[in-house]
Write a structure and sequence with these properties.
Elements: E1 10-11, E2 21-22, E3 67-75, E4 82-92, H1 97-107, H2 121-138, H3 145-160, E5 164-166, H4 168-173, E6 185-187, H5 194-209, E7 213-217, H6 237-253, E8 262-267, H7 273-292, E9 312-318, H8 320-328, E10 331-335, E11 342-347, H9 348-362, E12 366-369, H10 370-375, E13 387-388, E14 395-396, E15 400-408, H11 421-441, H12 447-456, E16 459-464, H13 466-472, H14 480-508, H15 518-533, H16 540-563, H17 577-582, E17 597-601, E18 607-611, H18 614-621, H19 626-639, H20 667-677, E19 688-691, H21 697-709, E20 714-719, H22 727-752, H23 758-776, E21 794-802, E22 805-813, E23 819-825, H24 832-849, H25 854-861, E24 870-874, E25 877-880, H26 883-895, H27 898-902, H28 909-918, H29 930-934, H30 969-977, E26 994-996, E27 999-1001
Parallel strand pairs: 6-7, 7-8, 8-9, 9-12, 15-16, 19-20
Antiparallel strand pairs: 1-2, 3-4, 5-15, 6-15, 10-11, 12-20, 13-14, 17-18, 21-22, 22-23, 24-25, 26-27
Helix pairs in contact: 2-3, 2-11, 3-11, 5-6, 7-9, 8-9, 9-21, 11-14, 13-18, 14-15, 14-16, 14-20, 15-16, 18-19, 25-26
EC number: 1.17.4.1
Enzyme class: oxidoreductase
Region (Disordered): 1-43, 941-968
Amino acid sequence: MTETISSGTTPRRSSGKKGAAVPNQSSGKKTAAKAPAAAKVGQPGHGLRIERVYTTAGVHPYDAVNWESRDVVMTNWRDGSVNFEQRGVEFPDFWSVNAANIVTTKYFRGALGTPQRETSLRQVVDRVVQTYRKAGQEHGYFAGDEDAEIFEHELTHMLIHQVFSFNSPVWFNVGTASPQQVSACFILSVDDTMDSILNWYREEGLIFKGGSGAGLNLSRIRSSKELLSSGGNASGPVSFMRGADASAGTIKSGGATRRAAKMVVLDVDHPDIREFVQTKAREEDKIRVLRDAGFDMDLGGADITSVQYQNANNSVRVNDEFMRAYEQGAEYGLTARSDGSVIDTVDAKDLFRQIATAAWECADPGLQYDDVINDWHTNPNTGRITASNPCSEYLSLDNSSCNLASLNLLKFLKDDDTFDHGLFTKAVELVITAMDISICFADFPTEAIGQTTRDFRQLGIGYANLGALLMATGHAYDSEGGRAIAAAITALMTGTAYRRSAELAGIVGPYNGFAVNAEPHARVMRKHAEATGQVHTLEEFDKAILDAAKAEWADCLEIGAVNGWRNAQASVLAPTGTIGFMMDCDTTGVEPDLALVKFKKLVGGGSMQIVNNTVPRALHRLGYPEEQVEAIVAYIAEHGHVVGAPALRPEHYEVFDCAMGERSIAPMGHVLMMAAIQPFISGSISKTVNLPESATVEDIERIYYEGWKLGLKALAVYRDNCKVGQPLQDAKGAKKEAAAKEAAEKDRLRRAQQGIGGTEYEAAAESVVAQVAPVVQTVIERRPTRKRLPKSRTGSTTSFSVGGAEGYMIANSYPDDGLGEVFLKMAKQGSTLAGMMDAFSIAISVGLQYGVPLETYVSKFTNMRFEPAGLTEDPDVRMAQSILDYIFRRLALDFLPFDVRADYGIYSAAERQRQLETGSYLPADADTDFTELAQSAPIERHAPSKAEPEAEAPAAAAQPAPTSAAHSSMELLEAKLGHAADAPLCANCGTKMRPAGSCYVCEGCGSTSGCS
């Protein structure tokens, strides 16, 4: 796969490795790079020679895999409705249920129920890989047909074995009748003219329509303090942001299942910078006022569209001059856009504090460090880098795009716990070659973007599962050892990518813009190589990787000096949300593990809680015997953390630190990891530094300052519960729990009145306890009493059918209208099923008579999934996941008040129809709309604290799991830790999402909150 011969060069002489071409040394000096003519297909001495690494000659990769047929049925756990159904799809037997579900729902093309619908992973992979092979042959990448076939087989093997994945647009579009868009990341530009501003709206809309995101810098637009040619005042960039935000929200509401993804950047010397900094923070104030007035201001709520700037991530572009003024407490000048003159001055410390305060209040703005970005820019002679994509990992020229692919790092961890750097190198070679080929046939949303991308051929290879790799090998994420490994792997990846790019330049030519940028491009390559030489290794594990990286960078410089390079950019670190699930990764991008316990879907339906597979592997690596490993894993399964785990030494706790939990990684630990790998990334890193709710403005100010000192290109923060849209989920959960406890207590007291002594007895008992407790400390234990139904009782009989299985339910009530008895008949008397249903009915009935609230049973048994399941004859419950799911939905509709069952998403057919017609589940004359009330619980807002920045909040103790079932890893984490995690619900399926880089991703359906 790696042997390369290029026109006008001789084979490499000294390194002993295959894979490149080097200059002819006879003259003793290097000549200026020239773009050789593209080789013809099959011409001897031209093109890549591909060797087999994963595959065997004569055996197709598909034939080496066991395939199985599966049924993919996706339901909304909130109301049981079916979101998607496709039966009989084909996947390798080692693919998880979640990976297969997401690929089927997201990446299979063709209308459901038609012959054109894809039904197998083979079809999806063939559609993509064969397109790449054909384009590679047509554009002269391969030495011959045999090399093209090996390329196809190797790529196929890596994809079906989850070694890597292309970004989502490739799976959406390549090989279909749609435009062949392969890029996920876009950067636009806007000038200070109305035509350009209106064109900005149009281009952004086209990109949003295609499901991607874009970013741009508004600093060319005149400020509101400057004059127009007509003599009036300019509107300023912030005013035009309103129109763009409204456009993004409209396009989203026109059919997309996620919010539009966009980035807006403004330079720190723009006269409107203070207004820009405050835009989203002031809108948060508005959201709180409207929420407290009863409006639905939840993320995706009916009234959230009344506030502005919610569809964009905002970033301030700071430069070294400003940061030095901040250090010195000096004044800083704001300059006019028209002539560059200083028209206003600000105190740099005060402005930096305003930025930190706004980020404390609402997580915006982030920072982009302009001088660092442009110091590592390979094409400064063409133009500066002024903006990024929405997640800040792609930083390049205006009107450009980048296609991404990510490698699964755990696939290169060998059984002896060493990293196979040789295999990793070969994988990078193949993937970067495929990514470059894609630009040859790709389509783009605008001609300007297409032209720039074809001229500079920006690529974004990256990786996922770094956090899992470090834990599996016994390394703490926040440690010198962990950072050394990450730096070495990243240096090896980018060095190999650029070395292959130089080889490709010798075959099909360097990128069109290379000639005018040859010197700065080579300078940046030397900077990468020098940074690689400065990495300090701690053990043989990372030393071997770093040695390989140094060799790759040496070859890269040698080959590039003659051939030039094929790509202006090679690597980024993206969020890897949806494709991370496709590869069955435990961790996304550069992130640590979210938590030690996970929510796993099972074949045939249902789910279970598991401890991450990396945990036992790490324990074995650290030297624990099997019996201790089992005990520690069992402890983690119960508690969700390692603190106090039997036999686990405290010095090993840090290995199991996660992004969230009892021992969460400190914010500066995330910043230091970013700093360790930034020198080896062409672009930047999609990652948000999460801070606890107790963090102060000073904490954020310090992190932003340290990000500049450490040489980061971009940095964003998120303080827990700083935004209204996410914490409302917490408020609703807290309100629901409090209401349930209150209802249970009232029910217990009511039943006790007819039991032994009633409330009078309880009052007397409390009086006795108060009198004797100081002396004897006697404890009076309160026991529930059973309230039996009268001999003559009110009841109803319901005939039902679930998935073809028929039965009857008899529900009897107390005279004061409370459910007290349930009988279920499903089969002939004497059968096992009939006996089990009778026993279950008696257990439920006795529980009801002892005071167990019906709501408790509803929360436990709705959404329980087993056969028989499917359609019912009940118009109020059209689909049930099991008999019990149907029974308790029906009982909830018959016996629970609206506000209680609304929390579980249980509505009658009439209520659902009314909501579609009027926007409310309740009639117009109803006193209260409990849906809106549940979404408008007040949240206390704290003023920024002035505590010392070094102060750390005490770790919260683990709490018992709540009674409600988990439906994602985030909810499982909440159950283990006893508090709600700060993440939104998926707009597509209702599952609580989890962080992935600087956005969120849904484990249920693969949807993301903005990043492709």
